[in-house]
Every structure is written in C-alpha cells, then in structure tokens.
Amino acid sequence: MKRRFLLVDGHSVIFQWQGLSNLHGRKPEHAREALARILRDYQDSSDFQVVLVFDGQGPRVSQSKEEGNIQIFYSKTGQSADAVIERLTAKYAETHEITVATDDNLERQTVTSFGGQWMSTTHLLSEMEDARRSLAERIEKNNIRRRPLR
C-alpha cells in the first residue's frame, strides 16, 4: 500500500480561511504556526503524512520536522512554494499517493500532470472537520467501554 502524503500550499490556505487570514494580517508568523498546529492534529486523526510548504526567504529550500509533527518546507528566495510542491509531486507521485491542497488552478494542473491529486482549501477544511468529528466519536465510544460497572 502506498503511503499517503498531503502537500499543503500554506499561504493558499491561510488566505482562504478567514481566521487565519485575519491573524496573518496582524502576525504572519502566528498564522503559519496556527496552521501547522491545525494540520498536525489532522495528521494525527487521518492516514496522511502532512507536508506544509510556504514561500520562503533564504539561499536554499529549508525543511523542519520534529518527532510526531508535520514536515514544513520553506522555498528559497525567488522560488515559490508552488515550485517546491510541484517538484515533490513529480519526484514521489509514482511511489506514493500525493494529494495537494491549493486553490491555485495552474498548480492543480501541474500536480495532476505528474500523477498527483488535488483538493481545494475549502474541501481540506471539510475533510479536517470530518476527521475531528470521527476522532471525537471514537474517543467517546472508547470512554463508554471503559466506564466501570456499578
């Protein structure tokens, strides 16, 4: 079975989700951190390995990952997050299931041409809400089973 990866165009999501967009207007770093936390929770309740990609600054592409967290890439100066997402899709789509969350139509076309799939940022939000509800239901069911008999 192929591993499933969700590549998220970070700024595409931030600018489409009202709360994150408002936060980005005041404190961009906090909006990026909030999105990373939200996506980490989604990764924990889904079968996706999440990779979050932002436009970056610096001489080369940078990556960070802590144990149990999502992977975060920042593109190098002069390169867009789209280029990083497209490169990762081209490299891994044959061996892994790649889904990209973006609202960029050109990026969608490029991703599908490399064998990846895409979803809109609105669809991603819906998927995350469904996963959160499902996890809450499983926890509740588990808690009911563990209650002591009286």
Notes on the protein architecture:
With 150 residues, the protein is an alpha/beta fold. It contains 6 helices and 6 strands, in the order E-H-H-H-E-E-E-H-E-H-E-H. The chain has helices at 10-16, 18-26, 28-45, 81-92, 105-113, 121-146, and strands at residues 4-9, 48-54, 62-64, 71-74, 97-101, 117-119. Strands 3-4-2-1-5-6 form a 6-stranded mixed beta sheet, with helices on both faces. The radius of gyration is 17 Å and the shape is globular.
Defining key terms:
six-stranded mixed sheet, alpha/beta, single chain, 19% strand, 150 residues, 54% helix
Number of helices: 6
Please write the string of helix (H) and strand (E) elements.
EHHHEEEHEHEH
Low-confidence stretches: none
> Could you report the average pLDDT, rounded to the nearest whole number?
89
Query: How far from one another are the termini?
Result: 45 Å
Instruction: Identify the overall geometry.
Output: globular
Tell me what portion of residues adopts beta-strand conformation: 15-25%
Strand order of the largest sheet: 3-4-2-1-5-6
By DSSP, the count of extended strands is: 6
Rg, rounded, reads 17 Å
- Major sheet, described briefly? 6 strands, mixed
> In percent, how helical is the residue content?
40-55%
What structural class do the secondary elements suggest? Answer: alpha/beta
